[in-house]
Each structure stands twice: as C-alpha cells, then as structure tokens.
Amino acid sequence: MAFNDFKQLQNVDLKGFLTTAAIGLIVSGYLIIYLLSHTPRLPFDEELEYQTIDGKGGLVKKRLPNVCRGDSNKNKSNNDNNDEDILLSVVVPSYNETKRISHMLADAIAVLQKEMAHRWEIIIVDDGSKDGTSEYCLNLSEKVFQLQEGQLRVVKLSQNRGKGGAVRHGLLHIRGKYGLFADADGASQFNDVSKLIESIKQLEGPQGKPAVAIGSRSHMVNTDAVVKRSFIRNLLMYGLHTLVFVFGIRSIKDTQCGFKLFNRSAIESIFPYLHTEGWIFDVEILMLALRKKIPISEVAISWHEVDGSKMDLARDSINMAKDLVVIRMAYILRIYRDDKEC
Ligand SMILES: Nc1nc2c(ncn2[C@@H]2O[C@H](COP(=O)(O)OP(=O)(O)OP(=O)(O)O)[C@@H](O)[C@H]2O)c(=O)[nH]1
Ligand SMILES: *[C@@H]1O[C@H](CO)[C@@H](O)[C@H](O)[C@H]1NC(C)=O
Ligand SMILES: *[C@@H]1O[C@H](CO)[C@@H](O)[C@H](O)[C@H]1NC(C)=O
Ligand SMILES: *[C@@H]1O[C@H](CO)[C@@H](O)[C@H](O)[C@H]1NC(C)=O
Ligand SMILES: [Mg+2]
After folding, report:
1. What are the C-alpha distances in Å from 339 to residues 30, 68, 82?
2. What sign has the CA pseudo-torsion 319, 324, 325, 327?
3. Beta-ladder partners of 93
4. Among all ligands shown, which has an atom nearest to the Cα of 129?
5. pTM for the structure as a whole
6. Whose CA is nearest to atom 24 of ligand 1?
7. Which of 188, 204, 316, 335 could cross-link 259 (Cys pair, CB 3.0–4.6 Å)?
8. What are the Cα distances from residue 79, in Å, to 32, 90, 153?
C-alpha cells in the first residue's frame, strides 16, 4: 500500500514536471519571438510629402498619393501631365548615396524616357541620409537631367528605417500601374526592366491579377561577378542561401536581388502586411506573395558588383539570420499575420 502510494506520487510528479517544462518552453519560445518581432513604425506627417523641382529653378512640396486608398493622385491640381497615365514608378531606397546614385539615375532616366515617354516617375526614398542625398538628387534632376515637375520625387524619412522600411514606404505611395524597386548603386542594368514587364504581363493575364517579377542573379554564380567577391562575402552568401532554404523559400533561387517589379494589386496585397524593415525584407515579401498565391517569375538580369556597399558584413549578417528565423516563427505563431495590416 505504502509502496504503491509512493509510485503514484512519483508518476504524478514526473508528469507534472514534464507538462510544466513543456508549457514553459512554449511560452518562453513565444515570448522570445514576440519580443524579437517587428512592427514598422507609422510614417511621420512630413514623410507623407514629397519634394520635386518646379521646373523654374525652385522646389515644391506636395502630398504623396496613397496606393491603399486607391488614389493614383487623382487630385488634378496644377499638374499638366496626366497622373493616371503613369505606367511605371521606380522606387530607389537611398542611404548616403551621393557617391553612387547619379550613374543609376542616368541609366534609369535614359531607359525610361526612351521606352515610356512621360509615363514614368522616380521616387527617391532618402532614408535619413547624412550626406545630403535628397538635395543632391533634386539638384541633379534640375541641372543634369532637366526633368519636369513631379517626374523625380524625393521623400525624406526623418529617421533611418532600413532598406525594407524605405521600399515599403515608397511603393505604398506610387502613382504607376507598376512599381519597381531598384538599388541606388546601379548594380543591375536598368534596361532589363523591359524583361520584367514582359514577364509580369504574362502572369497577370487579361484580368490583371496580382503578379510579381523579380530580377535574378542565379545564372551568374559561376561568373566573375560573384567569384571575384571576397571569400567571406561568398561564404556569408551561401550561409544565407542555406538558411533561406531551411526557413521556407525553396522555389526561388535568388531572393535578395535589388530589382523587383509588382503590379498595383500585388503591392496592395503585399506591402501593407510587410513587417521587416531590415535587409531580409525581400524574403518576407516573397513569403507573403507565396502565402497569397501571387505568381512570381524569376527573370535573369545583368548585374555587376558596385563598390561602396552599405552593408556591415558582421552585424548585418547576424541580423539577417535572426530576422529570417523570426519571420518564419512569427508567421507560424500568428504573431505576424498576412490578413491584418501592420
Ligand atoms: N533605405 C535604406 N536603404 C539602404 C540602407 N542601406 C542601404 N540601402 C540601400 O539599399 C541598396 C543596396 O545597398 P548596397 O549597399 O548596394 O547593398 P549591397 O551590399 O550591394 O547588397 P546586395 O545588393 O544585396 O549585394 C542601395 O540602394 C542602398 O542605398 C538603409 O539603411 N536604408
Ligand atoms: C552615413 O553618413 C554618416 C555621416 O557621414 C555616417 O556617420 C554614417 O555612418 C553613414 N552610414 C553608412 C551606413 O554609411
Ligand atoms: C548642382 O549641380 C551642379 C551641376 O552638377 C553643380 O555645379 C552645383 O554645384 C550643384 N549645386 C549644389 C547645391 O549641389
Ligand atoms: C495589375 O496591374 C495591372 C497593370 O496594368 C493592372 O492593369 C491590373 O488592373 C492590376 N490588377 C489588379 C487586380 O488591379
Ligand atoms: Mg549593391
């Protein structure tokens, strides 16, 4: 009798212990992911305005349109070019880019003017640069490119948000039917945008379904562009590829290319739900697209390394790895939702 009692007690104790441990583990796991999860900050009021040249040597400041409200800038104020006609909006996230951006802009503007007359705009999202990137770009648009009012718009973020935050902000305030984001370093040849547009048109079909076309460098892994990068850079690249593969995106070879095209409806269904503001945001974009069954095409593009990377290899790789795990776990634990704007 006494012996049996003892055994029972032990059994209860062990069960109790295991249950407590399991609950503790789940709760602390949830708590850790919750604490590491990220909500993009709301834009400050001044970040909802853009600056552009007025074509007479001065600058004007105006309110940005909002994709989610469905306004493609329909307030036909004193804009002489018809805003609703904009085909392509190019968002350029820029952080301390005075040394690199002029090449990229020259390349882009030449292609845009040739391929789509006046039906384009460029939105520079200056992510709290300390080197006068905004002023530099406005000056270029007047003195070098001789653009018209509204063609090149500069949005200045008062505080640095990270590339993901800047791209999100830019794409949510475009006028075009299509939105492209492109790196300021001009690493991709802007010409290739026509390949992306061709590809996205096939995906969206006649009904204009949401669609995404992304540039890909996966055909280049064995070429100079990649092989010549430093050993450590390539090691980190392979590490990241492995991690991305493990944490869920297997159908896409190059997730990180800074040249991605979305149609308006894809922007509406992806970007309001994007949590990540750091470097790994590309992966969350693609995850959201996959979850929402938005078709994605990968298009091979030309690419060359450009010096002056803003990436801090040690710090940023660790953050990317951490954010990648957080994104996947947060969606599993429903801390991140793809049906609730953040
Ligand atoms: N908004 C924002 N953009 C940034 C930040 N850091 C870099 N960028 C932009 O992100 C783009 C890519 O930056 P790069 O420094 O060229 O990155 P990279 O080392 O070439 O990285 P990969 O292109 O992924 O190989 C550029 O347009 C930068 O201006 C940032 O803190 N905030
Ligand atoms: C941007 O420029 C400021 C001022 O020159 C500098 O302190 C900062 O480290 C720069 N950031 C990057 C990522 O280059
Ligand atoms: C504007 O650009 C012109 C031509 O490149 C240059 O000469 C001038 O110094 C620039 N001004 C400013 C304020 O950057
Ligand atoms: C997708 O973008 C294209 C751009 O031409 C547009 O025509 C279409 O309406 C968009 N799809 C939806 C559902 O809005
Ligand atoms: Mg680059």
Report:
1. 20, 14, 34
2. positive
3. 125
4. 2
5. 0.91
6. 256
7. 188
8. 50, 19, 14
